[in-house]
Amino acid sequence: MSRLLLGVVLLGNLSVSVTAQVTLAPPAQVKFNSTDYRNILHWTPAPSSSSLQYDVQWKIYGEADWLDVDGCQGVQKLHCDLSTVTSEPREWYYARVRASSVASSSKSAWTLSPRFSPRWDTKISPPVLKLNLTEHGIVVRVKPPRALVRKLHSNLHYKIYVTNTSGKEEVFQMNCCSNKLTLKHLDHNSEYCLQAQTVVPLQAKSSVRSSEKCVTTL
């Protein structure tokens, strides 16, 4: 009888030990989403998980040490801004995320992001397009999506797409330092619709077109 009781006690202790060692499922789909060099890491929680906190670390490709991301330790949000620590556009970076539970003091394994390059992986936004109608034509002004984009790409320029009521499209080019482009010799009392696109020639990279803006000539 004593041996039977001892077996029951041992099994009970084993059950408690196994329960205490249950680990959390790690986060999934850890990846960078970068636009105009704003480098945001995103992830999704494991299925059937709630009330979890997350820790984020980063490192430069080829280096051994992982570093904590300030402001992204023990957070409940599912994203983290790594723009400051990944600010060198020519470097390659990794990030990783793990989940933790305050209730059980357990932690998941780390989930690694794909290798990330700000220079090659960031998406460029279209410029802001401003139109003024004068007796001489349409004055077009553009503003880069973010000053940092212009700073990092001195050869950046813009394409201006102009469509009239007949459906014919013309394309004009402006360099990054031009203040304005004046479209002359236009048909009177006709609608012209314009879109703008940012182009980075050395990287064969361009933005999507901006939303369309239309004006009617005098």
Low-pLDDT parts are: 1-21
CATH class of the largest domain: Mainly Beta
Number of strands: 16
Q: Please estimate the helix content.
A: 10-25%
State the end-to-end distance: 105 Å
Sheet with most strands: 5 strands, antiparallel
Structure annotation, total helices: 3
Number of domains: 2
CATH architecture of the largest domain: Sandwich
Instruction: Report the portion of residues in β strands.
Output: 35-45%
Radius of gyration: 28 Å
Helix/strand-derived category reads mainly beta
Task: Characterize the quaternary organization of these chains.
Answer: single chain
What is the N-to-C order of secondary-structure elements (H for helix, E for strand)? HEEEEEEEEHEEHEEEEEE
C-alpha geometry: elongated
By CATH, the superfamily of the largest domain comes out as: Immunoglobulins
Task: Give the rounded overall mean pLDDT.
Answer: 88
CATH topology assignment of the largest domain:
Immunoglobulin-like
Domain Interferon/interleukin receptor: 122-217
Family: Belongs to the type II cytokine receptor family.
Protein name: Interleukin 22 receptor, alpha 2
Keywords: Disulfide bond, Receptor, Signal
